[in-house]
TrEMBL record:
The chain crosses the membrane at residues 32-54, 98-115, 127-148, 160-178, 211-232, 310-330, 336-359. Residues 384-399 have a biased composition (Basic and acidic residues). Residues 376-422 are annotated as: Disordered. This is Uncharacterized protein. It comes from the Eukaryota. Keywords: Membrane, Transmembrane, Transmembrane helix. InterPro entries: Elsinochrome_Biosynth-Asso.
Length: 422
């Protein structure tokens, strides 16, 4: 059996008996329950976030002018119960992906460092699948943070703990990703790694040709590039308020000092954007005007929109699923997919645990049942009070006309005046 990346062919027949694993696939890694639960969780996350984006079930801060244009929204009606329910579901799924990735990384580290001779019992095939299941959990967790940005910003301790776990996972996952490209899948992990480190294998004559080496190095670079780009964006979003805007305040400062950026402050940059928008609002569409629209206004607005996050979510989903599917389908003599279909406890438990995020969603929705009619401001904060009719009108006026909206004749300004009128 050759390595998954077209290394020189080597089957278990060519190897000593102690290098041939008793089972190519491990039920705890390639069992049907484990795989179904992972894929189902990923699909649920993607469908939930896309549905919430379309149905205005995300916090108002997630949407910008580009989103309003794409969705055809002029006035956004915020349903607090729906937002809370979606937030609870996405948070539960995000935690599930984070903890699953951490658990798999710890498990593959124990195997890799020969605890109880696990590396002599585990096939390189099962090890590779475990590595990319952890990779899938990692990238999907990165995608969920886009919908939880405001929630995590307001909880500093939770944010710091999450960041620490996020940083810990790729530190140990990186070595596994490198090894999966140079190990022979049909052998035990110990025998496969005995050939040498990934760099030694790449520099040896074990690989067939320079083109293959370049292809492997390029593929590894893409995987690490996806992880690095995702981590930089997410950590930046959690620690900076203008992380979704380009150029952000720190980028303006750097560009001003290096290439002489025309706007020396955030205020000047906003004014420049408004001037461009005003010039583009005239009916006549000239070629320079079209160029400014498609190369300045649209890209900057798109990168700050949640639609941009949805595109990244789709990329993470396809890229992660393909990596897992590729390793599951590696050709091996007599075996196409080494998946265990035995209904053991270890296969049924992950399937049942899929229900936990839905319980969190139901709890989040029911928690707002008694407060369903309480108005919510445009910032997402709940306005206290007992006279919901007057407060609902006040909230609507603030959202439509701004905080300085004038009251109607005879309408009280505050909750206290409402009580006095009564």
């Amino acid at each position: 059996m050759g390595s998954p990346r077209s290394l020189r062919r080597e089957t278990s027949v060519d190897a000593p008996d102690y290098c041939v694993p008793t089972e190519l696939g491990d039920p705890d890694i390639t069992g049907f329950g484990v795989l179904i639960s992972f894929v189902a969780s990923v699909v649920i996350v993607m469908i939930t976030i896309v549905w919430a984006y379309i149905k205005d079930a995300l916090p108002t801060s997630c949407y910008n002018e580009f989103d309003n244009t794409v969705l055809g929204r002029k006035n956004r009606k915020l349903d607090g119960r729906r937002v809370k329910a979606v937030q609870s579901l996405v948070l539960a799924m995000s935690d599930q992906q984070l903890v699953s990735g951490l658990a798999i990384v710890i498990a593959i580290s124990l195997i890799r460092f020969r605890v109880h001779d696990l590396d002599a019992k585990t096939s390189a095939y099962a090890y590779s699948n475990a590595v990319y299941l952890a990779f899938l959990s990692c990238v999907i967790h990165l995608a969920t943070i886009a919908a939880l940005r405001d929630y995590l910003r307001d909880r500093r301790l939770l944010k710091h703990i999450r960041i620490l776990i996020m940083v810990f996972i790729p530190m140990y996952l990186g070595q596994g990703i490198l090894e999966t490209w140079t190990i022979t899948q049909g052998l035990t992990l110990r025998c496969s790694l005995a050939r040498g480190s990934p760099s030694q294998v790449l520099n040896s004559d074990y690989l067939e040709g320079t083109v293959l080496k370049v292809a492997i190095i390029g593929s590894i670079s893409i995987i690490f590039g996806v992880l690095a780009a995702g981590y930089i964006r997410r950590i930046r979003d959690l620690y900076t308020r203008d992380g979704r805007e380009f150029p952000s305040s720190w980028q303006v400062a750097v560009l001003t000092r290096t290439v002489g950026w025309p706007a020396t402050s955030k205020t000047e940059l906003d004014q420049a954007k408004k001037r461009i928008a005003a010039r583009l609002s005239t009916p006549r569409m000239s070629i320079p005007k079209a160029c400014r629209l498609f190369f300045i206004v649209v890209p900057t607005s798109f990168t700050g929109s949640f639609m941009f996050e949805v595109v990244w979510l789709g990329f993470y989903f396809v890229f992660g699923i393909l990596q897992v599917a590729f390793y599951l389908g590696i050709d091996h003599p007599g075996v196409l997919f080494a998946i265990s279909f035995e209904p053991t406890f270890g296969q049924l438990l992950p399937l049942i645990l899929i229900l936990l995020p839905f319980l969190a969603m139901a709890e989040g929705y029911s928690a707002h049942g008694a407060e369903a009619t309480t108005p919510i401001s445009s910032t997402g904060t709940r306005i206290p009070g007992r006279d919901n009719d007057n407060l609902t009108r006040l909230s609507r006026d603030i959202e439509e006309n701004g905080p300085n909206a004038r009251k109607q004749d005879g309408e009280p300004d505050s909750v206290a005046e409402t009580e006095q009128v009564k």
